[in-house]
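Box 3.1 A note on notation
Throughout this textbook, protein chains are presented in two layers. The first layer is the amino acid sequence; the second is a token string describing backbone geometry. Keep the layers aligned when reading.
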Amino acid sequence: MSELLYVPVLRARQHAAEAYAWLPPADQRRIAPLWNLPPRPGTAAPALTAEFRKDLGSVGAVHRHSDGWIDAPFADETQVAVLADLVDEYCVYGRLQPVTGPDRSALQQATSFETAARSGRSVGIRVRVTGEWDAGTAEAVRSLVARADPGVRVDLLLDMGAVLASRPDAGKEALRALDALYPVAPWREVCVLSGGFPHTTADMLEQGLHEEPRGDWAMWHDITQSGRPYAPVLKFGDYGTQPADAIAKPSSAQKGGPDWGFLRYTTERTFVMSKILHKGRERSDKLAFNRAAARRIVELTSFRGPMAGAAETWLRDLAGGGEKTGQFETWLTVGDAQHMAYVAHTLRRQ
């Protein structure tokens, strides 16, 4: 995984795969997503296989020349058995790597290690810290890694979950976890996954643009400026431009939904949001409203311009009179694409 800079946590869905595909190859080689298969509660085995294969197909199609991890953190024991062969297929014959963790079942842990051994690739050890660091977790991780074949390389994926401005202690807890986990194994990569795009309400967007601080970025600076000897080798990760708990939403399509969404844009210190309409007005009114929504972002002094990537080009075109305003999936694609490109370029300059 040469030149790795950034690990976005993404849902294994078509819109997220498309956002990754929008990135130029040079950026894709520096960005290794941690793809999460969505929950599929109550789905019977034949349909489950078909639906998971569709999710994996979307992801595998954009990883012909770049690496990533694939995880199913919400799969129950029955689903783990169904998934084992599918994940193995995309890891052995593709560029993906399996993920396990100390909180997973013995079956899931064993199949992940077996897949890593067959594929000759690494296995991600995902360790979640939802509040205060639990000192006993380090021993659980040590025991888990000891079960791997000696030839299997291991990656530490320290998952700090939603790191919002209301959680100023996140950097301290991440350092406590890293101090305990870094000596546990000869990690190939050590990635700190943080951040959570805020839950957005209609009231937040009534005054036009709305900005929220990037708690993930503040936490990252706390870690990298700590003076720890391992700090230079750490890799940054985040949850993109959706709330951290969005990956836990079931995959089943929802009919209806709100008559509005929002465009997302990332700056150095803030997430910027601009309300956009999905339905509920005449087409001409909706089109004018949505062009204005894009224009508010394009007119920001921090807007990086169409040369920055496909997402900025899309925003520029809509603001300038474009007819295609897209749907929810389009807005997610645009948001994730601009965010991934910006974060990777920022990290490359550091």
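The CA atoms of residues 218 and 269 lie 8 Å apart. The two ends are 19 Å apart (CA to CA).
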